[in-house]
Amino acid sequence: MLHLIIELVKSKSQQDDIIGNLTISDSLKTHRIDSLRRETNKYKGLATRDVYRALSQDFQYQIINSLKFVREINFKDLPQINISCKEGTKNRILIANDLNNFFKDSGFKTELNCSGMLIGLCDQMSPNESLRIDYPTRLQNLVNLIFTSLKPWVRSSITAIPSFPVTDNLIQIIICGDPHFYEDGSIYF
User: Fold this and answer.
1) With 70 as the cut, is the pLDDT of residue 50 above it?
2) Is this prediction's pTM over 0.70?
3) d(C-alpha 130, C-alpha 117), whole Å
């Protein structure tokens, strides 16, 4: 009887080892599959980074509400926001439209111009200036708050240049770079 119990315990121990090995093996397989899935998504993201991705509604509301807050707490005499983009890619125009809609939906006065008129201006900008904001120096605080509102969407640098525009109540946003997209619809240049 004792011999039978030892055999059963031995068998149970061997069974546990086999089950443990299967569990470890399955765990390694699951880990490897997850790793391959992440790599595939990474390369898919790189391969499709030039494909326009709209932001989710929640992400859009976050940006719009942030811009509304900026508008409501800061300025009674809001400046005009002119958004211009260089022709050439559909994505640049789509980004300009998104930006225009964010400002419009948050109560700013906007104007959108995506014509060939910017070719000379974009040529004068440095290669690092894919997205630039020109503004009167008196609007520095407003521009800083606009940066903060747009930062979750635009994940690359924005060049800000205090200037002496034709009017003291105008912020000019210029898009010359080619946008690339993260999976969530945020952009970088």
Assistant:
1) yes
2) yes
3) 16
Residue type at 1 in one-letter notation: M
Helix residue ranges per DSSP H, 48-113: 57-74, 90-105
C-alpha count within 13 angstroms, C-beta hemisphere, residue 141? 7
To the nearest 10 degrees (0 to 180), the angle between helices 57-74 and 140-150 is 160
- The whole-angstrom separation of Cα 124 and Cα 131 is 13
Return d(Cα 50, Cα 177) in angstroms, integer. 12
Tokens read off for 148: 């903060």
Domain spans, the chain: 1-47, 57-188
Which tens digit of pLDDT belongs to each residue from 109-124?
999 998 766 556 677 7
User: Which strand (E) or helix (H) includes residue 85?
Assistant: strand 80-85
Distance between CA atoms of 175 and 92, rounded to whole angstroms?
A: 7
Position 165 confidence tier, pLDDT thresholds 50, 70, 90: low
DSSP 157: -
Consecutive H or E run containing 110? strand 109-113
Q: What is the pLDDT of residues 10-46, one digit of tens each?
A: 555 555 655 555 556 677 777 777 777 777 666 666 6
